[in-house]
């Protein structure tokens, strides 16, 4: 495994109790809260997303290509700094769930459980799969969100109470609805939009496409942008 991958910071390991360390902690904690937050922000905010993945039977781990060596060591100094710094870490960084199958629901659940309710409520930017829309009970013309996508959005509604940006990824395994008629797509987007709007803190919805076979069409793009969503190609350029 790449040395830049690590388990998500959910707990504090034991810390040394040297007198010099105690003095440094005391001096740091004597700084005004605003200055401490500025330091946390400078040290813990990364220029790239944090990618989350989970091997079967293992804990959630993270990978960040440009993560500095030793990041995020300051979370492990003491409990107060851990609490303050964690709030900044989860608020200022982007977290992208890597798994593009139905297992992503398990990854999201494990991640939110692992970081705890306080840190989950601090999250501001998450990227996960665009929900799969399928026929309801096998009937053509009647659509519903597949259970894994619906449950993922409900988890965000319940636990990510300060989520401001939801980024969704469209890839070959969930792009089928974008190849249907505009009427079907319009219905599907309405189903997704209803769940997205149930996240009261949400200010921005991004739909990122990494398929390269004419998806999305001009009309599909217009339907999404009509809902206030941002449509982006895989290279990061807005369409």
From TrEMBL:
The lineage of its organism: Eukaryota, Fungi, Dikarya, Ascomycota, Pezizomycotina. It comes from Cucurbitaria berberidis CBS 394.84. This is Uncharacterized protein.
């Amino acid at each position: 495994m790449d040395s830049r991958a690590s388990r998500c910071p959910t707990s504090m390991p034991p810390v040394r109790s040297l007198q010099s360390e105690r003095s440094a902690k005391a001096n740091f904690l004597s700084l005004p809260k605003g200055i401490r937050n500025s330091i946390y922000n400078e040290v813990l905010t990364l220029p790239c997303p944090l990618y989350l993945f989970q091997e079967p039977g293992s804990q959630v781990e993270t990978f960040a290509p440009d993560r500095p060596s030793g990041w995020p060591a300051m979370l492990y100094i003491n409990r107060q700094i851990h609490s303050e710094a964690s709030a900044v870490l989860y608020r200022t960084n982007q977290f992208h769930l890597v798994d593009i199958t139905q297992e992503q629901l398990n990854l999201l659940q494990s991640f939110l459980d692992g970081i705890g309710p306080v840190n989950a409520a601090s999250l501001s930017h998450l990227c996960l799969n665009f929900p799969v829309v399928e026929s309801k009970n096998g009937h053509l013309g009647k659509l519903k969100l597949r259970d894994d996508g619906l449950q993922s959005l409900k988890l965000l509604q319940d636990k990510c109470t300060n989520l401001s940006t939801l980024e969704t990824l469209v890839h070959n395994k969930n792009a089928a609805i974008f190849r249907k008629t505009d009427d079907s797509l319009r219905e599907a987007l309405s189903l997704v939009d209803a769940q997205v709007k149930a996240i009261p803190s949400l200010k921005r919805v991004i739909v990122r496409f990494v398929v390269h076979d004419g998806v999305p069409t001009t009309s599909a793009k217009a339907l999404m942008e009509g809902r206030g969503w941002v449509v982006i190609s895989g290279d990061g350029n807005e369409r």
